[in-house]
Write a structure and sequence with these properties.
By secondary structure, the chain is mainly α. It has 9 helices and 2 strands, in the order H-H-H-H-H-H-H-E-H-E-H.
Length: 281
């Protein structure tokens, strides 16, 4: 639940920032007539994202167990790749996000209403599709309960409220610090999703070593205990882990965390200046 809350909050805030910047820029430049077109693009992006999430959830239900595990494992590994790209991309572009979006919107306004709609659709749709895939993979890794869905909904709701407060100038936030901290945690979460994806592929018979365990601490950390559930929900920790899962986790988390910390934290200024997100309005 906690991991999905964080994913929903981070991805939802990215989408809220994108919408807030675009709306504020149209208002400031006197192009309120384009706001309905912009909101139409945002609505289409949300509809496509929800449809994609529904396909991920119910699409493979009629397949065999092995086919479902193969699809689940493949999509989980794909989600890890997208998460990794996303956290590094945001670490590089957090400061220039506003300027880039405004430049693209300027070009779209010149091209016409249809270009504005497509620009909003693509800008928000990318975030929506990423969010749907991340949340689905996180939910698969933490178990088939309502807790992951509840965490995702709460995270998205928090992002909407925070995005509105930022737009209205009621709060300020240092975006670089926010995305650096959440990115650091998401690297660990992604490592757990990767290990879960590997296990799915082992159950599907695509990868070997399903019965070769690196450790089994189920007696000490029962999966049904509150602390076992907590570790599963936050870190995707599995008490019974195969050697291939353990190797995949270490091979991913150690180098990715090292590179991310160097990029996100290695060049931080000695006296960090808060980013006034409210200036988009």
């Amino acid at each position: 639940m906690v991991a999905n809350y964080l994913i929903g909050l981070r991805e939802g805030l990215e989408a809220a920032l994108v919408v807030g910047i675009l709306v504020a820029y149209l208002v400031r430049t006197g192009r309120r007539d384009l706001l309905p077109v912009l909101w139409t693009g945002v609505g289409l992006a949300l509809a496509i994202s929800l449809t994609f999430g529904a396909i991920l959830t119910w699409g493979p239900s009629g397949l065999s167990f092995e086919a479902q595990e193969a699809i689940g494992g493949t999509l989980s590994i794909l989600a890890v790749g997208l998460i990794t790209w996303m956290i590094f991309w945001m670490a590089r572009t957090a400061r220039s996000l506003k300027a880039n979006l405004q430049h693209r919107l300027d070009d779209a306004v010149v091209a016409g209403k249809r270009a504005v709609l497509v620009m909003a659709l693509l800008a928000v749709g990318r975030e929506g599709l990423e969010t749907a895939l991340f949340l689905w993979a996180g939910a698969q890794a933490t178990g088939r309960t309502t807790a992951p869905l509840l965490g995702a909904v709460l995270g998205l709701a928090s992002a909407v409220v925070l995005g509105w407060l930022l737009y209205r100038g009621a709060v300020r936030i240092n975006l670089q610090q926010f995305f650096a901290w959440t990115g650091t945690f998401l690297v660990v979460v992604a490592g757990g999703v990767l290990a879960y994806g590997v296990h799915d592929l082992q159950e599907a018979g695509i990868l070997p070593g399903l019965s070769s365990l690196a450790f089994d601490v189920s007696a000490v950390i029962p999966p049904t205990s509150w602390y076992g559930t907590l570790l599963k929900g936050i870190l995707n920790f599995s008490p019974a882990t195969t050697w291939l899962q353990a190797i995949a986790w270490v091979a991913y988390v150690v180098p990715v965390m090292t590179m991310f910390v160097r990029q996100a934290w290695g060049h931080a200024p000695a006296r960090p200046a808060p980013v006034a997100v409210a200036t988009v309005a």
